[in-house]
Amino acid sequence: MFGKNENYYQSNGAGFTAKEIAQQPCTWTKTYYLVKSMKNQIVDFLNKFDSDSIIYLTGAGTSEFVGNTIGDYINNLVTPEVRSIASANLVSNPDMYFKKDRKTLLVSFGRSGSSPESILSVNLANQLCNDVHHLIITCNSEGTLAKESHNKSNYLTIILPDETHDQSFAMTSSYTNMMLATILAFDIKNLAKHEKTIDHMSELTNEVIEYNYQLIDKLVLNFKFNRIVYLGSGTLKGMAQESALKILELSSGLVATMFDSPLGFRHGPKSIIQKNALTVVFLSDNEYTRSYEVDLLKEMLKQKVEDEILVVTNKPLEKLANLDYVIELKKDVVEDDMVLVFPFITVAQIIALKKSLDLNIASDNPCPTGEVNRVVKGVTVYEYMSDKY
Q1: Any idea what DSSP says for residue 212?
Q2: CA distances, 104 to each of 52, 55, 66, 94, 317 (Å)
Q3: Does domain 194-358 have CATH number 3.40.630.30?
């Protein structure tokens, strides 16, 4: 895997992380057939919602970023309004979101399905909404969300294949499979088309896994960056957010991170670019969007001093002076950038893995002292009372 054998990763505390990144294309096929087997249940369940309804996509950490990545995409597929709201926000300010008389679908994402905020979000929705339904998408059949949804008519639970329940600290295959399951569920009428799309994105991702890791190895070996910025537009911005979290987690905070859109980056955040900063620009296949991204890229190349830039693109990129690294997949132009999320996030996952190894940090458990945990601990539950309800 990525130029090393399994024993190498295991002996360096990265066995689960490496395996779970590499397994992703295989797990996507399994998730497709799982959702396909539930087609009738999903259609019956989602047909209950109309233009007066609201759909919240929610989770904590990477599970939140599932919604942040696909939220606008799902919003364009369905009639109800779709919003991605962190479970932390639903718990801390429930009356901002849950309306007594508005039909609500809460889509809860969870690798473990036992994070305290996820459970509290479900409970608060039940407490505050007269007509609420729950779609649980989880990787753990033994988690609290999966167990509590059993045999309840206003719940539908999609339990993903066992191997997506990542054992590593950081979520990798759980992130991509929860995204995929949600896209398939909300576009269930186009399953045949999505089967071909999954084949395409698996081909793109396998190229990253089998070949492009070599450039990542070279980058990590030759450039000792201590800060990293991920930039992407639209759906690629949500994925950039997840990319930033991955390396923050796997470097145990030793690499400072930021994410933004290429257009938004000029408005102050660009101040982070200093010596030993790496900027990773994810380019859209959409010509209009890409024009703005390439403009920023050219600007940054002119201003480079001791920072470096990596471009990740599907379509070939024109030759640009001073550009340090390019990963070009060079496959057919995709219909929607959502397809690129899957191979592009794999690039970011491999960067995080390789950087943690370079820093002699065990990727499977980068914080052994327990300040940060695989499943969050230490959340005190408070009773919620509101005179609005």
Answers
A1: I
A2: 9, 6, 19, 13, 44
A3: no
Q: Encode pLDDT of 90-102 as tens digits.
A: 999 999 999 999 9
Do residues 201 and 342 make contact, with C-beta atoms less than 8 angstroms apart? yes
pLDDT at residue 372, rounded to an integer: 59
Phi, psi of 198 (to 5 degrees): -65, -40
For the ranges 46-55, 128-137, 321-330, which has the lowest average pLDDT?
321-330
Q: Which residues contact 321 (CB under 8 A, 6 or more apart)?
A: 301
DSSP state of 304: -
Cα–Cα distances in Å, from 296 out to 243, 256, 266, 302, 337? 20, 22, 8, 10, 19
Secondary structure, 3-state, 307-369: CEEEEEECCCCCCCCCCCEEEECCCCCCCCCHHHHHHHHHHHHHHHHHHHHHCCCCCCCCCCC
CATH topology of 6-186 equal to that of 194-358?
yes
Question: Measuring CA to CA, which residue among 137, 23, 128, 135 is closest to residue 80?
Answer: 135
Span 239-277, pLDDT tens digits: 999 999 999 999 999 999 999 999 999 999 999 999 999
pLDDT band of residue 330 (cuts 50, 70, 90) is: confident
Radius of gyration of the chain (CA): 21
Domain boundaries, the chain: 6-186, 194-358
State how far the Cα of 22 lies from the Cα of 267, in Å rounded to an integer. 36
Distance CA 64, CA 309 (A): 28
The superfamily (CATH) of domain 6-186 is: Glucose-6-phosphate isomerase like protein; domain 1 (3.40.50.10490)
pLDDT tens digits, residue range 104-134?
Answer: 999 999 999 888 899 999 999 999 999 999 9
Q: What is the DSSP string of 240-291?
A: HHHHHHHHHHHTTT-SEEEEE-HHHHTTTGGGG--TTEEEEEEPPSSHHHHH
| 293 neighbors 230 (Cβ within 8 angstroms) | no
282 contacts 342 by C-beta, under 8 angstroms:
no
- In the 8-state DSSP scheme, what is residue 381? P
Q: What is the mean pLDDT of the chain?
A: 94
Closest by CA to 294, choosing from 277, 269, 316, is: 316
